[in-house]
């Protein structure tokens, strides 16, 4: 019997999907709907542009529905988009500029829809002078308006006007079955929410992705299946019932590598296996809670960390460390990490009694030495390769310097306990999310242990589902989470930096908009942000401003960047080959990224696959 | 003449039955009688099983409320004794004796616990004073505190236990003792010691006793007055000897005839009579 | 009014009171929960996007209005009861605007199917084993079975499930380890679908059975060892009645009566789902729905599921009280 | 008291075995006070070492000694479990006895509360309470909440025992002997209720431990305090079973099974000792 | 049918022979051991077609004695020595030498009415099932025949056959008692053992039940062993009575003789203490308390309460010796005066 009833196993790609609560719902534009991980946005939606988070330079940019890059007017109050021709919805209706206008206008008219808010804030009017052109008139100058339609993970997807125009309340419409604007279309789904199957459109050429292909994609069916808890996922992959895993613990990854090595592929060919996502797990401090407003305290806490233990404890060594406040992935390597090495090495920190150079460019080698006993030949000797695997360097643990910094901040040590200037013991509650992001919880426990051992009693506080809210409301002292996410494939840091402007900082207790959860406020930072707004997206000045920001962040240490978010996403090669990897990073690795579609159409059937 | 206890057309109805068949059962139908305060007596209730004897006893003790009619003890309506203080005052004057002496004492509690508890609650005495009160009460029943102290119910015979129960009931100095079949679970040789004890209580301590039994022989032996119950009705009442020597109702007569004489010849004859009567029906 | 009707009315009133108190309590706790459904949705929508702060605030306002979370606690409480009485729990907040009721109706058949079966099997096996072990005290096989059951009893269900998953999913991969039925098979009364339902239900059901059997076993065994000394059993033995008959008709039958109440309660609590087992095997039942609801701050959903569960258990208690006289001839109502 | 223990040990094999098992686990748990490492410290030892002469029960993927982790975990879990059990027994006994004995309005009110709690689904309520309490949710609060949810079935059982005692003659006799309600309940009825209490205590303990594990597995555990659930949680986070680190989970489970078997044997033999029926035959009924 | 199987020679032999029977309750709870000598060296025989009454005060061991005879022993009761032999025409049964054979004989030849037998019916099954379970397989009849046989039997005993469809709790105590008698006699056994079948019944019902037992016994020609402490009951139906005191048989003889001329002071006391309807003269109660069977008095066990006790009684146990009409165990046998 087939593993999937009626579908040959070797025509289907099986991807780890979520457990859908509401399986009948295919409206991407309802609240939360656009964040689906079940293939709906990944396989059927489309918009103007894509950025490959792993790409560098021009190769990272893809024009999808748009025929060209965005065209702004002089003062960034108008954006014009030219659309490609010959693109059709899966029900045969042609895609035109009217669909785009409809998308924007409908959402503005229906607050609560996914992109209603940003359209309302930005768009004064939108018009389609001809079926292939859309013109956006903006309320205020905005050089980054196009990013609303630029997919890193998701973006504003274009609505099928011919479907939605007959719908009374687009918020209450389940859009089932959805018409597709991309190469795959809904085949069937489980009402119980455990799987959704998409199949290749017969007219796959009439899509933005299909136009670029020379021959038909070999993957005929894409199955998003909820394969259960991490243990079950590992088992299912080893049983060849799950081709793509999104995320498992390092140990699960190692188990697969050990037991199914020949049948699997990873981002790195061997250890550390993981794909570094362009997000930056860090130790966040709440700058509105004393004593974390004090730069010296933050730096002292950073210098108390032995990053090797954190790397071993959280990722068992498979961590891609970051000393800069941007993830060491994609184009950031060439744009920031490599150029800034010298600056980092020379960076001097005043401890109050002396000046030190805290940067240690050899951490990658040290970690390599630590994992070599277990992984042996997997670990190369080439320092450049090691830097790609383990990061460029980090701060050397320096207890003496930390002591001096704390003393400079007015702290005193009684026995093995640091006292705050007001005479009370310095204790920290370090918040972690918990088992949703297990590696970070692990990092939290080990950092807590290091701080505790040096006299700052630290307890780990598992916030679970309330994590996001508590971060937003400033209901924490320190936390392990990320407030930096980047395009990965583009040096522009506005992705997160825009929201760091002091205009948006809220008093404690009120909800802080996403990103600047540490509530870091600095005039120099505001200046960088304001300049960046006036510079075009592709202007080389963007990278210069980025470097300015990164230097400021090192000096201020507003949060302690730890590493890229390393994701263990092993692929089973029994049926499919040609997955993206560090060596061939043509797409991101992981089923939830929308540019996964580029991986799916590129996969090749394994000729040695068992015939069903 | 003041009235000690007075029952006025007391009835008790139970609703019984299962899920589908439900009916009402009149356990007691309009019982009326009174006991005199000045002249202690042994007042006997006889009747077959299920005739309502126990129900009457329970209503007199206030454990059950009459469906209609009233029960007054020294002028007070027994069912109206709500507060704990009034209940205690009532219990000091009315005390029960139960059917099964082995059941009447918790097998896991020492017997003296009941005695001390009674002394403390009703007489308000502890320690030596309590010992004295207990000893006095136990002496009335031919026992002493030394014999009872620290012992468990299984260490004594049924007759002894029943006497201890009586002694305990005597501690508060009650006016009335309600004894529901006090001898039916006690074997023949002990039975007389209890029954004789009741006589002594009446004669020496002036306690009135409501004696419930289906044993006509002992009823005849000790009672002053008797009522005969049949299916909830009081069918005959009066001077004990008069009623039992010369029953008026057919049922009373049958009851009387059912008593087997302790003599083989007569007993066989009685049984033969019964057999022929049954087979004739 | 006749006694039974009076009893029925009083008992019904009590039933209403139980439901009212239980649901109110849950409502109170749920409302004290700090998880804000608006925030949950906002963070879902903004987590990976480059959304600017002004839009986020606008989005937050729009969602709060959409979800209808304005109004005082009392208003919400009253309107909640208004809806409950109409059998409507309002729209789910995490799957807005799908009605909670339709989410529940999606999950309920799975839960009922799996749990009813598992509960009944557990009950039968546990009681049978317990009764046998209590009656044939010296039988070696039964002692062995008893010891196994007892040793399994304290093992957390999660571990049992995980071990089963490893054994039958990996070491000897003969059973599906995840989901409710085979993929791409639409619900129907075909052999394939039913077979696949059974196969997928086997591991979760086995977990539930193994985890639950000990409780019944222990209580049944002790009930039986009390009953075997009852007069009617001793008498039947003296009367030469065969052992099997004594066991089934004299011992087990009497001992089972109190267990029936337990069964009813367990069946009632089926509506709450088996959180851990569903979680482990990805079973699309009420437990999973509930945990998702709690995580996403979906009050409407949590309240819906708990209310259903409370009502079901209360009904089970109510019904068992009413039908008890039918199964135990000794009991009278009133 | 001491004599009873001696008698039980000498004359009852079940008690002896139960005692040895329970005491063994107890001593083992007690040993955590003398542990060579703090119980929350991680990566002090090489991770993933299988059982060996050096690490008898192996080490975890977090570089902890399973032996000492277990020792603390059992201690903490037992503290939690016993707290739940004792609290809920107190509630069950009080409510069950008062309700069964007083009857009437009291009974109805108490049983309505009881039925309400029976109807509340445990796990969801605990999860909700967990959310509401958040950082204030430490183990005593959790124990209290669990105790509040865990007494109701047993209160009904106890109530039925007391109901049957209520109509026994010795109870009526006690009333007329002027005993107060507490006196009757404690002196007269409690000995009959105790076996039920002991028996249900076992199941309650298991339930409490199961609850702790369930919450931990769902990610609600105080990770600063080692418990059995916490060990499973961390093992799970490290995919220990899949990764073949079986000793991380197997040993704690074995310890729990041993502990439970020990407690079970103790409960049945102590029950036999205090059960009114066997006590009577001992005294000579 | 029954008579045909009894061949001539066995007709004269007694149906039951009990020899030197000792049955003790041996208990050991947590180091406290107790031995209750409830049956201590009892020898007796029971003939065909005879009603044998056993009398004695509470806990003197009456029930234990007949439990032992019926082979209904469960721990802690143990038969220490002695034998119990039945002779049912064709089949001989030695209860303790070959216990297996007992099972087949139960209800066929031998039935037993337990003490408190009002409560021996399964509370959750209809009465009908009790007959099916106990008797059906002995009768070799079709279900319908069996049913009509049972109904006929009940009718003959004055019971409405409709009671078969009732549950035990729906019937009164007297009714249930009669049903257990019906149950015990439906197979027409040669030997019936009854333990206090009339205690706790009211006098009218008690008389009915006695009449019933007598009827059945006469019709079937069975032997009945009958226990009660109520002497008037013995007076009414027993052919012979045995008096038990503290686990021992102290006197035995034809009922008339025992009542008219009790030989043992205990027997005499039992008879004289009975009140008679219409007699109000004061009756004496027996002084002292019943002996403790785990630590019985030395010598004659009755001596601490005996008005006639002499020193010899304290040390020497009187043997059960045959007299003209029966047997008695007393050093001063026959010296009592009946009040
Ligand atoms: N609580 C009750 N509920 C229903 N019926 C009851 C209740 N108590 C007694 N009865 C019924 O009332 C009737 C009278 O019972 P009662 O106990 O007063 O009789 P009795 O004369 O004491 O009988 P006995 O000689 O058997 O003790 C009986 O039919 C009995 O079944
Ligand atoms: N199961 C038992 N375990 C221990 N001792 C017992 C047991 N049954 C009876 N006894 C004891 O054996 C002795 C004789 O008891 P038995 O029941 O034979 O007396 P009885 O003459 O039938 O009394 P009654 O008239 O009360 O029925 C008593 O002392 C009793 O305590
Ligand atoms: Mg009565
Ligand atoms: Mg007896």
TrEMBL record, chain B:
User: Which Gene3D superfamilies does UniProt cross-reference here?
Assistant: P-loop containing nucleotide triphosphate hydrolases
Q: Does the keyword Transport apply?
A: no
InterPro entries membership: AAA+_ATPase, ABC_transporter-like_ATP-bd, ABC_transporter-like_CS, P-loop_NTPase
Q: Which Pfam families match?
A: ABC_tran
- Which PROSITE patterns does the annotation name? ABC_TRANSPORTER_1, ABC_TRANSPORTER_2
Per UniProt, the keywords (alphabetical) are: ATP-binding, Nucleotide-binding
* Domain spans labelled ABC transporter: 5-256
Which Gene Ontology terms cover its molecular function? ATP binding; ATP hydrolysis activity
Q: Does the keyword Nucleotide-binding apply?
A: yes
Similarity comment text for this entry: Belongs to the ABC transporter superfamily.
- Protein name listed in UniProt: ABC transporter ATP-binding protein
Q: What is the lineage of its organism?
A: Bacteria, Pseudomonadati, Pseudomonadota, Alphaproteobacteria, Hyphomicrobiales
UniProtKB/TrEMBL annotation, chain C:
* Keywords on record: Cell membrane, Membrane, Transmembrane, Transmembrane helix, Transport
InterPro entries listed in its UniProt record: MetI-like (IPR000515), MetI-like_sf (IPR035906)
What Gene Ontology terms describe where this protein resides (cellular component)? plasma membrane
> Transmembrane stretches, by residue range?
12-30, 110-136, 157-177, 197-218, 255-281, 301-324
Question: Its membrane topology, per UniProt?
Answer: Multi-pass membrane protein
Q: Which domain of life is it from?
A: Bacteria
Write out the annotated subcellular location. Answer: Cell membrane
Domain named ABC transmembrane type-1: which ranges? Answer: 108-324
Q: Name one GO biological process term.
A: transmembrane transport
Similarity remark: Belongs to the binding-protein-dependent transport system permease family.
Q: Please identify the protein, giving its name as recorded.
A: ABC transporter permease
Q: Which organism is it from?
A: Devosia geojensis
Ranked from the top, the taxonomy reads: Bacteria, Pseudomonadati, Pseudomonadota, Alphaproteobacteria, Hyphomicrobiales
TrEMBL record, chain D:
GO terms for biological process, alphabetical:
transmembrane transport
Q: Give the membrane topology, semicolon-separated if more than one.
A: Multi-pass membrane protein
List locations, semicolon-separated.
Cell membrane
> Which GO cellular component terms, listed alphabetically, does the Swiss-Prot or TrEMBL entry include?
plasma membrane
- Which residue spans traverse the membrane? 12-35, 116-133, 192-220, 241-268
The UniProt entry lists the main location of this chain as membrane
Q: Give UniProt keywords alphabetically.
A: Membrane, Transmembrane, Transmembrane helix, Transport
Q: Which residues form the ABC transmembrane type-1 domain?
A: 74-267
UniProt-listed PANTHER family: OLIGO/DIPEPTIDE TRANSPORT, PERMEASE PROTEIN (DPPC-2), OLIGO_DIPEPTIDE TRANSPORT, PERMEASE PROTEIN (DPPC-2)
Concerning its family, UniProt says:
Belongs to the binding-protein-dependent transport system permease family.
Q: What is this protein called?
A: Peptide ABC transporter
Q: Which organism is it from?
A: Devosia geojensis
TrEMBL record, chain E:
* Origin superkingdom: Bacteria
**NCBIfam families, sorted:** oligo_HPY
Q: Which organism is it from?
A: Devosia geojensis
Classify the main location.
Answer: membrane
Q: Kindly state which keywords UniProt assigns to this record, in alphabetical order.
A: ATP-binding, Nucleotide-binding, Transport
Signal peptide residue numbers? none
In the record, what terms sit under GO molecular function?
ATP binding; ATP hydrolysis activity
One GO biological process term: peptide transport
Q: From the Swiss-Prot or TrEMBL record, give the protein name.
A: ABC transporter
Query: Does this entry carry the keyword Transport?
Result: yes
Which SMART domains does the entry mention? AAA
Q: Name one Pfam family in it.
A: ABC_tran
The family assignment reads:
Belongs to the ABC transporter superfamily.
Supply the Gene3D superfamilies for this chain: P-loop containing nucleotide triphosphate hydrolases
Domain ABC transporter positions: 16-271
Name any GO cellular component annotation: plasma membrane
Q: Would the keyword Nucleotide-binding be found if you checked this record's keyword annotation?
A: yes
Membrane-related topology note: Peripheral membrane protein
Location of the protein in the cell: Cell inner membrane
């Amino acid at each position: 019997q087939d593993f999937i009833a009626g579908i040959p196993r070797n025509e289907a790609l099986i991807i780890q999907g979520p457990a859908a609560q509401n399986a009948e719902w295919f409206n991407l534009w309802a609240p939360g709907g656009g964040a689906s991980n079940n293939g709906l946005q990944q396989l059927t939606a489309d918009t103007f542009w894509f950025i490959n988070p792993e790409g560098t330079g021009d190769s990272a940019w893809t024009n999808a529905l748009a025929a060209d890059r965005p065209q702004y007017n002089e003062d960034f109050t108008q954006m014009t988009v030219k659309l490609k021709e010959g693109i059709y919805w899966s029900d045969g209706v042609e895609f035109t500029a009217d669909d785009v206008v409809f998308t924007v206008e409908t959402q503005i008219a229906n607050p609560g829809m996914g992109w209603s808010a940003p359209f309302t804030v930005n768009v004064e009017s939108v018009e389609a002078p001809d079926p292939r052109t859309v013109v956006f008139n903006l309320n205020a100058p905005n050089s980054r308006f196009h990013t609303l339609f630029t997919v890193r993970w998701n973006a504003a997807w274009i609505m099928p006007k011919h479907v939605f125009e007959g719908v009374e309340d687009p918020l209450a419409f389940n859009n089932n079955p959805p018409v597709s604007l991309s190469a795959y279309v809904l085949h069937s789904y489980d009402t119980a929410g455990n799987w959704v199957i998409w199949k290749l459109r017969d007219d796959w050429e009439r899509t933005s992705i299909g136009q670029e292909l020379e021959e038909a994609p070999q993957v005929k069916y894409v199955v998003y299946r909820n394969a259960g808890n991490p243990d079950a996922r590992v088992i299912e992959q080893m049983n060849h019932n799950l081709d793509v895993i999104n995320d498992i613990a390092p140990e699960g990854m190692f188990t697969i590598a050990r037991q199914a090595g020949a049948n699997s592929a990873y981002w790195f060919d061997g250890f550390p296996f993981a794909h570094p996502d362009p997000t930056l797990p860090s130790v966040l401090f709440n700058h509105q809670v004393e004593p974390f407003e004090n730069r010296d305290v933050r730096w002292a806490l950073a210098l108390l960390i032995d990053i090797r233990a954190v790397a071993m404890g959280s990722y068992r060594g498979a961590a891609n460390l970051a000393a800069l406040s941007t993830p060491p992935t994609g184009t950031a390597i060439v744009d920031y990490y490599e150029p800034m090495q010298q600056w980092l090495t020379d960076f001097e920190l005043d401890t109050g009694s002396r000046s030190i150079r805290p940067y240690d460019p050899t951490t990658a080698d040290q970690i390599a030495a630590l994992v070599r006993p277990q992984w042996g030949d997997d670990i190369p000797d080439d320092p450049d390769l090691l830097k790609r695997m383990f990061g460029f360097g980090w701060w050397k643990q320096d207890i003496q310097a930390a002591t001096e910094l704390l003393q400079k901040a007015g702290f005193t040590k009684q026995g093995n306990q640091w006292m705050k200037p007001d005479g009370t013991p310095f204790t920290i509650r370090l918040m972690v999310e918990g088992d949703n992001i297990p590696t970070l919880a692990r990092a939290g426990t080990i950092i807590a242990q290091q701080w505790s051992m040096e006299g700052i009693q630290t307890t780990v506080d598992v916030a679970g589902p309330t994590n996001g809210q508590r971060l937003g409301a400033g209901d924490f002292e320190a936390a392990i989470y990320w407030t930096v996410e980047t395009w990965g494939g583009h040096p522009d840091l506005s992705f997160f930096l825009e929201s760091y402007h002091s205009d948006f900082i809220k008093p404690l207790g009120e909800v802080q908009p996403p990103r600047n959860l540490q509530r870091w406020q600095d005039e120099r930072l505001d200046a960088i942000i304001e300049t960046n707004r006036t510079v075009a997206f592709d202007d080389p000045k963007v990278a210069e401003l980025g470097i300015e920001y990164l230097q400021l962040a090192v000096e201020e240490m507003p949060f302690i960047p730890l590493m890229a978010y390393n994701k263990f996403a092993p692929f089973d090669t029994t049926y499919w080959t040609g997955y993206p990897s560090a060596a061939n990073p043509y797409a991101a690795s992981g089923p939830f990224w929308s540019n996964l579609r580029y991986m799916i159409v590129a996969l090749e059937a394994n000729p040695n696959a068992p015939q069903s | 003449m003041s009235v000690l206890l007075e029952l006025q057309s007391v009835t008790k109805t139970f609703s019984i039955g299962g899920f589908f068949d439900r009916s009402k059962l009149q356990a007691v139908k309009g019982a009326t009688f009174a006991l005199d305060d000045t002249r202690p007596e042994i007042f006997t209730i006889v009747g077959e099983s299920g005739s309502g004897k126990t129900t009457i006893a329970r209503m007199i003790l206030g454990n059950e409320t009459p469906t209609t009619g009233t029960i007054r003890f020294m002028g007070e309506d027994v069912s109206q004794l709500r507060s704990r203080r009034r209940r205690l005052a009532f219990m000091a004057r009315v005390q029960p004796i139960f059917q099964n002496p082995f059941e009447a004492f918790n097998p896991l509690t020492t017997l003296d616990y009941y005695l001390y508890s009674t002394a403390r609650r009703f007489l308000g005495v502890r320690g030596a004073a309590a010992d004295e009160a207990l000893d006095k009460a136990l002496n009335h029943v031919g026992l002493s505190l030394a014999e009872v102290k620290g012992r468990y119910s299984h260490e004594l015979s049924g007759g002894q236990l029943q006497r201890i129960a009586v002694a305990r009931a005597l501690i508060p100095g009650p006016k009335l003792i309600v004894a529901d079949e006090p001898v039916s679970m006690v074997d023949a040789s002990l039975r007389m010691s209890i029954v004789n004890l009741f006589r002594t209580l009446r004669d020496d301590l002036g306690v009135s006793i409501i004696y419930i039994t289906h044993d006509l022989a002992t009823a005849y032996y000790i009672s002053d007055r008797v009522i005969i119950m049949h299916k909830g009705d009081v069918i005959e009442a009066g001077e004990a000897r008069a009623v039992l020597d010369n029953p008026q109702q057919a049922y009373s007569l049958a009851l009387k005839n059912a008593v087997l004489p302790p003599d083989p010849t007569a007993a066989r004859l009685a049984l033969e009579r019964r057999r022929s009567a049954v087979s004739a029906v | 009014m006749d006694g039974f009707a009076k009893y029925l009315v009083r008992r019904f009133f009590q039933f209403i009171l139980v439901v009212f108190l239980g649901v109110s309590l849950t409502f109170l706790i749920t409302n004290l929960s700090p998880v804000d459904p608006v925030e949950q949705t906002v963070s879902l929508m903004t987590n990976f996007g480059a959304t600017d702060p002004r839009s986020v605030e606008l989005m937050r306002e729009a969602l709060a209005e959409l979800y209808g979370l304005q109004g005082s606690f009392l208003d919400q409480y009253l309107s909640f009861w208004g809806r409950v009485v109409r059998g409507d729990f309002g729209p789910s907040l995490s799957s807005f605007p799908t009605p909670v009721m339709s989410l529940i109706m999606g999950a309920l058949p799975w839960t009922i199917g799996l749990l009813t079966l598992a509960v009944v099997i557990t009950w039968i096996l546990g009681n049978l084993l317990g009764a046998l072990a209590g009656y044939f005290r010296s039988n070696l096989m039964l002692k062995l079975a008893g010891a196994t059951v007892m040793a399994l009893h304290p093992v957390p269900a999660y571990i049992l499930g995980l071990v089963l998953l490893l054994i039958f999913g990996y070491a000897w991969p003969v059973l599906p380890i995840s989901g409710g039925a085979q993929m791409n098979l639409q619900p129907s009364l075909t052999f394939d679908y039913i077979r696949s339902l059974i196969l997928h239900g086997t591991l979760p059901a086995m977990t539930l059975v193994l985890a639950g059997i000990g409780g019944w076993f222990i209580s049944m065994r002790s009930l039986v060892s009390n009953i075997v000394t009852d007069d009617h059993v001793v008498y039947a033995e003296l009367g030469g009645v065969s052992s099997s008959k004594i066991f089934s008709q004299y011992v087990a039958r009497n001992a089972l009566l109190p267990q029936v109440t337990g069964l009813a309660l367990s069946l009632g609590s089926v509506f709450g789902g088996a959180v851990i087992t569903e979680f482990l095997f990805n079973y699309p039942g009420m437990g999973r729905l509930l945990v998702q609801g709690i995580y996403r701050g979906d009050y409407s959903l949590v309240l819906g599921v708990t209310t259903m569960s409370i009502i079901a258990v209360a009904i089970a208690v109510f019904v068992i009280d009413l039908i008890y006289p039918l199964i135990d001839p000794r009991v009278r109502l009133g | 008291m001491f004599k009873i223990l001696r008698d039980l040990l000498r004359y009852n094999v079940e008690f002896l075995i139960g005692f040895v098992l329970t005491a063994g686990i107890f001593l083992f748990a007690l040993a955590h006070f003398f542990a060579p490492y703090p119980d929350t410290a991680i990566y002090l030892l090489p991770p993933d070492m299988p059982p060996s002469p050096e690490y008898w029960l192996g080490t975890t993927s977090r570089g902890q000694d399973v032996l000492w982790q277990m020792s603390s975990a059992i201690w903490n879990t037992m503290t939690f479990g016993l707290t739940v059990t004792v609290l809920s027994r107190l509630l069950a006994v009080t409510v069950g006895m008062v309700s069964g004995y007083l009857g009437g309005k009291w009974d109805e009110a108490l049983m309505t509360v009881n039925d309400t709690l029976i109807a509340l689904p445990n796990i969801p309520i605990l999860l909700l309470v967990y959310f509401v309490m958040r950082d204030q949710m430490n183990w005593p609060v959790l124990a209290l909440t669990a105790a509040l949810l865990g007494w109701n079935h047993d209160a009904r059982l106890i109530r039925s025992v007391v109901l049957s005692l209520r109509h026994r003659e010795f109870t009526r006799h006690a009333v007329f002997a002027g005993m107060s309600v507490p006196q009757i309940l404690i002196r007269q009825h409690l000995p009959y209720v105790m076996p039920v209490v002991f028996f249900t205590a076992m199941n309650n303990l298991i339930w409490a431990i199961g609850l702790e594990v369930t919450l931990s597995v769902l990610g609600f555990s105080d990770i600063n305090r080692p418990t059995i659930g916490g060990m499973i949680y961390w093992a799970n986070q490290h995919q220990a079973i899949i990764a073949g680190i079986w000793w991380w989970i197997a040993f704690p489970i074995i310890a729990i099974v041993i502990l439970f078997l020990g407690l079970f044997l103790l409960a049945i033999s102590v029950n036999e000792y205090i059960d009114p029926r066997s006590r009577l035959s001992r005294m000579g009924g | 049918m029954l008579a045909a199987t009894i061949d001539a020679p066995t007709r004269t032999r007694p149906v039951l022979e009990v020899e030197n029977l000792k049955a003790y309750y041996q208990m050991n709870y947590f180091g406290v051991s107790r031995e209750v000598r409830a049956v201590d060296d009892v020898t007796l025989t029971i003939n065909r077609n005879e009603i044998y009454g056993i009398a004695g005060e509470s806990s003197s061991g009456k029930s234990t004695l007949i439990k032992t005879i019926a082979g209904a022993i469960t721990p802690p009761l143990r038969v220490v020595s002695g034998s119990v032999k039945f002779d049912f025409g064709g089949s001989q049964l030695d209860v303790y030498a070959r216990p297996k054979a007992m099972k087949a004989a139960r209800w066929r030849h031998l039935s037993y009415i337990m003490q408190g037998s009002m409560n021996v019916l399964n509370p959750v099954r209809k009465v009908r099932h009790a007959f099916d379970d106990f008797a059906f397989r002995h009768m070799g009849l079709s279900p319908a025949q069996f049913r009509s046989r049972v109904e006929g039997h009940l009718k003959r005993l004055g019971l409405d056959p409709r009671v078969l469809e009732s549950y035990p709790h729906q019937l009164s105590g007297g009714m249930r008692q009669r049903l257990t008698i019906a149950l015990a006699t439906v197979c027409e056994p040669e030997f019936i053992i009854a333990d206090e079948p009339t205690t706790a019944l009211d006098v009218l019902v008690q008389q009915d039940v006695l009449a019933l037992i007598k009827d059945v016994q006469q019709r079937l020609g069975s032997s009945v062993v009958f226990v009660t402490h109520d002497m008037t009951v013995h007076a009414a139906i027993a052919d012979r009575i045995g008096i038990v005191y503290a686990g021992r048989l102290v006197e035995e003889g034809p009922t008339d003789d025992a009542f008219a001329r009790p030989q043992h002071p205990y027997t005499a006391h039992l008879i004289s203490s009975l009140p008679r309807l219409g007699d109000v003269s004061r009756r004496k109660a027996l002084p002292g308390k019943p002996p403790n069977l785990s630590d019985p008095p030395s010598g004659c066990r009755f001596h601490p309460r005996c008005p006639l006790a002499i020193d010899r009684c304290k040390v020497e146990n009187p043997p059960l010796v045959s007299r003209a009409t029966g047997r008695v165990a007393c050093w001063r046998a026959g010296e009592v005066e009946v009040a």
